[in-house]
Amino acid sequence: MGEGSAARRSTSERIADVEQRVEELRRRRAELAAGERPSPESVNFARQRAEKSLHRAQDAHRAAGQRHEELARIHEQLANSYQRAAMRGDDGPPQALQRKADEHWQAAHDSHLRSVEDHAKAQDPKKSSSG
């Protein structure tokens, strides 16, 4: 499943999938409570579902990492703009403009860190709360 494919699915389709999965899990729980052993087919099916879930989580982490990088670049551009304005003496006291620049530099740094974390989670699902 590629990046953005979940976004193309409608909310009603995702809700229907979740409701179907909940019903499958209820049915399986009842079967296990009744002492039924899992069939090789059901084990294989569960393994396939887990792999798909893992891939969706990895795709989501990669996409989040890319968004964090984009956000970091925007913050860096804003910080540079504020610093140029402070050096030229535009739009207010230089100290206030530099403070705003510093805030954007910090936000850019934080976004870079979140990007690294998301890319790491995409590579190693054990680092993810969803893995």
Characterize the structure shown.
With 131 residues, the chain is mostly helical. It has a domain at 62-127. 81% of the residues lie in helices and 0% in strands. The chain has helices at 5-8, 11-33, 40-88, 94-123. The radius of gyration is 23 Å and the shape is elongated. The model has no long low-confidence stretch (mean pLDDT 87).
Structure at a glance:
With 131 residues, the protein is an all-alpha fold.
Radius of gyration from CA coordinates: 23 Å
Distance between the termini: 17 Å
Return the string of H and E elements: HHHH
Structural class estimated from helices and strands: mainly alpha
How much of the residues is beta strand, in percent?
under 5%
Based on DSSP secondary structure assignment, what is the total number of beta strands? 0
Q: What general form does the structure show?
A: elongated
Low-pLDDT runs: none
Mean pLDDT: 87
Total helices: the number is 4
| Major sheet characteristics | none
Helix content range of the residues, please?
A: over 70%
